[in-house]
Amino acid sequence: MAKRRIYFFGNGKAEGSAKMREILGGKGANLAEMTNLGVPVPSGFTISTEVCSEYYKHNGRWPDGLAKEIDKNVAKLERVMNARLGDANKPLLVSVRSGSAVSMPGMMDTVLNLGLNDKVVESIIKKTGNARFAYDIYRRFIDMFGNVVMSCDHGYFEAVIDAAKRKAKVKLDNELSAEQLKEVVAGYKKVYKKHIGELFPQDGKVQLRHAINAVLGSWNTGRAVTYRRLNNITGLLGTAVNVQAMVFGNMGEDCGTGVCFTRNPSTGKKEFYGEFLMNAQGEDVVAGIRTPLPLKKLGRRLPNAYRQLTQLMRRLEKHYKDIQDMEFTIQNKKLYILQTRTGKRTAEAAVKNAVDMVQEGLISKKEAVKRVTPEQLERLLHPHFDPKAERNVIAKGLPASPGAAVGRVVFSAGAAEAWKKKGKSVILVRIETSPEDIGGMDAAVGILTARGGMTSHAAVVARGMGKCCVAGVGALNIHYKAGRFNVGKLVSRRGTGLVLTVRAVRL
């Protein structure tokens, strides 16, 4: 009997479970588990980690029979969703995401909105009457596919939309009109043709094949290898690939997306913690493109969705018996859970969570001891600044990861690594961090970003590393080429000394 390579989930039934992390990866295993629990999860299928292992053994070729299995599961997903990949009349759009057995946040590739083409976009406009939404997801897809799948520098696409915003005299992407976004799409296609040497692909199955290869290929990118080395992650087969029906948080003001934790990952306090954006897609929150709103404000915007979300947060924490880090999307007021995983937390939060969960009867004392690592205990003993000491506060931001740090300002991951080798302590200052910055984040003693929130890439990775991080400092104006940042009239250049301190809500 042929080895099974793909596992389907949908319509309240899944072919996997949380016990299958080694085969389905953490994301796929938890999507299957939540589906079986009746949690509202968009349907899809998971290509096993064993395929990734075979992919590398055969020099980037799919194992025999995989293409037919993928086609079979795509057809099954089409039946469940009553839509077809690339069909202009009933279009199915999917996301293609990674997922190893051990969480590696942001280190591997994701492609969203796959299945879009010129005809599908026109169909979506006719069906929804929302041209802005259609062009918004199309420009996102061309950018992500071009960058992630075809290795076209994101900066080329960014230059097009930055020019459009300057012309329209707006600051944010979501302030561009449908007509302006249509022009951005045309500009993105020109970028793709110029740098890839061919027209943007219109066939959904071709797009899917390339995206799956990109996710499998991201297992051995420099950032992923560095992350595994820094976190001593060994012995894994590779990444799974999760192909899942898209739901949209950017269809209008009754839509949104966010990231939430069942407890505060910085302090350990038992409270719902997280952030969201209205009329946005999930990457906007994680990448720090816009500074999001605190989760509690969702209760005023969409009270029914918020109530359901908090109920699911309680339920999933009780089920997994640990703090959960969840991603969600709300489409036309309907809530969907896209992911849950064990939440990364600070050393302080790890100790408090372990003690509290024993007292609540969730875990045993023996399990609590296992949950606090020697490295976390060592971090608890690090020195902190005296909160009563005088300070010259130049700017305030969000307390993404607590602690204190003193170092020289640098503006790139490469500079942070180079200066560390010379024995110098540095603060990595970025507009927003990305997975490529992982080496520099490890080298720095603290991280400072102008954009992003408490659940951005910088925040999540810094907490996992035990690094002090201040995010979303809107007063910062960073100039990479000039090697400086300014806050009002105050200018700090590369090599300037800087102090970061995070406690409660202060910089």
Structure description:
The chain has 507 residues and is of the alpha+beta class. The protein has three domains: 47-245, Acyl-CoA Binding Protein; 247-378, 2-Layer Sandwich (D-amino Acid Aminotransferase, Chain A, domain 1); 398-502, Glucose Oxidase, domain 1 (3-Layer(bba) Sandwich). 41% of the residues lie in helices and 21% in strands. It has 18 helices and 22 strands. The chain has helices spanning 21-37, 49-57, 66-81, 118-128, 131-149, 154-168, 178-196, 204-217, 222-230, 282-286, 298-301, 303-320, 347-359, 365-371, 374-380, 413-421, 438-443, 457-465; strands at residues 6-10, 13-14, 44-47, 84-85, 91-92, 94-99, 110-114, 240-245, 256-261, 273-278, 293-294, 324-331, 334-342, 398-401, 403-410, 426-430, 446-449, 468-471, 477-479, 484-487, 490-493, 497-502. It has a six-stranded antiparallel beta sheet with strand order 2-1-3-8-6-7, with helices on both faces. Strands 14-18-17-16-15-22 form a six-stranded mixed beta sheet. Strand 16, helix 17 and strand 17 form a beta-alpha-beta unit. It is globular, with a radius of gyration of 22 Å.
